[in-house]
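Operator note (shift B, R.M.): manual run for NADPH--cytochrome P450 reductase requested after the automated queue skipped it. Running by hand, logging everything below so the morning shift can see what happened. Input copied straight from the record, untouched. If output looks odd, do not overwrite the archive copy; leave it for review.
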Amino acid sequence: MNSTDLIAVVVLGALFWLYRNLDSIKEFINDQLYGDDPSLGVNSNGTRDLAEVLKDNDKNYLVLYGSQTGTAEDYAKKFGKELTARFQLRVMVADLENYDFHSLNELPDNMPVSFVISTYGEGDFPDGSVNFEQYLNELDPDMLDNLRFSIFGLGNTTYEFFNGAARKALDKLQDAGARLIGTLGEGDDGAGTTDEDYLTWKEETIELLQNELDLHEDEDKQFESSFEYTALITIGNSTSLGEPSKQYLPNATLQYNAEGEQSGPFDLSQPYVAPITETKELFQSKDRNCIHTEFDISRSEVTYQTGDHLAIWPSNSDEAVSQFLRVFELDSETIFDLKAKDSTMKLPFLCPTTIGAVVRHYLEITGPISRQTLGLLVSYAPESIKEHIVTLSKDKSLFATEILASKFNLADALLSLNHGETWTGVPWLLLIEMLPKLSPRYYSISSSSLSEPNTIHATSIVENTPNDITGTNITGVTTNLLRNIQVIKNHDDAASLPVHYDLEGPRGLFANGQLPIHVRHSTFRLPKDISAPVIMIGPGTGVAPFRGFVRERCAEVKRDGEECLEKMGKMVLFYGSRDDDDYLYRNEWVEYAATLDAKFEIDVALSRVQEQKVYVQHRLAERQEEVSKLLQNGAYVYVCGDAKRMAKDVQHAIVNILSESKGLTEPEAQEIVKAMKVAGKYQEDIW
Ligand code: FAD
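Run finished. Output pasted below as returned.
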């Protein structure tokens, strides 16, 4: 072999090695570029200074969001995307959590800022925005006299402090001299109008921004993605097949502590894949389902307290995935990588990955669709229906009757609008950026951390109703997944399942009944003083945390004996169900009553066994005298379940009891309930 041959062999060898190790090389580059978490964008020099990051990345508009579950983040991104698409603004959309705000009054070119902030709990800021709230609290007058801003809040009128966080931000920013563009937008999830509220606010705000910033619209501008797409040919160890976080990829190693438990923290960025040790159907009736599920946390650092919430990370059903792939003519096997075009952008999911993994595990593809989503697809509508799609996307009431009333998801709607034919040419990157992330669903934990420190119980009613228009069922993502696991594990009647799931998960990660979970801590807690009486009101699955509360007190009695029982204040549970068939945990309450003796009582309202419907609020009213006596003795009131009607009806019943027993006017009694809420003596866990 001469020297030329030798060089050729070496070069070919090196090329072959490069090809074989492409994934590892990409992974190395990813690590260098993105540090610990490739799904997170980072700023060039890691700074938290807003003005500096905007300048470094040549941005001329800022959208800041505070999000608890991802909804505010989705709206912020939509808003930023629209400003870019229509006016070519170079928008930075950023989480309040990741920045400091001292330069907010000195933004480059005096750019305006739009805030999108959700409210959580009792008018609180989302967990990640506590730093922003603190900044607002410390503002002096005139500190923000250069700032122009607009603000959209996401809230729920069924809660006492509707849009509390956005309203507080508005007041504080204005007190510090900042000038509001337009009016405060207030999304109301309670009325189910968040989308329309957003559209109204957005239209008004954009019109004002056009004048303020002299913006001109480029109507022919096509969608431009914030990401660079690269097609790949091999699945490597760093390729996500739908793993819930990067710790579960084959090229990563899960961390364990000295006790051999999987290390956390477990939160919205990383779940624990928990084995399901027990799952059973709780309803007797055939037409509705409620699933009890027990997750084993003994081999992890996951902990919880009685009254906390369990987040379950779902994936989409086979039926929903294949319908979605079909309508857009997508190939689930396609492997690709994404790179953010600038360092302020976050990758929406783990990359590299496949289209199939993204559709199944990372995108919310089934819920109701919004007018704005349809509007974004207008350019790709088949010519024969384009005009109709334009009209639908602009006409609120037509959209409501034709799309929302039919309970279509995106794929259903597009197929129906195009007479069963597919939509070709919709960019995959547009779908990725347009659709919300598939987010975890929350469940009030129905076990007690004292009696079950190693397992977390959830009690979930299965969302499944027939849709006469599509001939299929409208199914909730998570609850049908839980039901699938229950049916398969217990060898029940699989033929009755309306939808099916890949229960093995990516690379078998969820095999034998495992699901990703994390715990969200709540403030829903039994009184520390065991002698305080407790009134619990929880119809349907609203009974979940009260099963936990009662099990907690039983465990305390077992631990501390007779003396504890003597000291214990009375616990009354007002429970409601339709009839005997859906009476949850019927036999268990008998056991609890045996342990707690006269200290525990369950009052059951079976709403459908007599002509006149009887609900928990009626039972409260019937027992007015006793309830009022318990309140006088310092009882804590707990309400859990339906936020839209039940919580209001119950509050009304308590106000009535207070006003009648104390001879107060209704507003005076309402003030007492308000004061009880502030003091933590009237707690709600409602959804
Ligand atoms: P999703 O997929 O989220 O669907 C939600 C609803 O929309 C369903 O009714 C579904 O049928 C409907 N839907 C789907 N597609 C469409 C469409 N295209 N058009 C119109 N409607 C559609 N629930 C419990 O059962 N037990 C609990 O203990 C409990 N605790 C909770 C605690 C908290 C703090 C919160 C916030 C919620 C709690 N929930 C509880 C509710 C729970 O989180 C879920 O919302 C519920 O289980 C539905 O989840 P899913 O994924 O099955 O349905």
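Quick read of the result: The chain has five domains: 3-31, 50-213, 227-245+318-430, 247-316+440-520, 534-686. Residues 18-42 have pLDDT under 50 and may be disordered.
Leaving this for review. - R.M.
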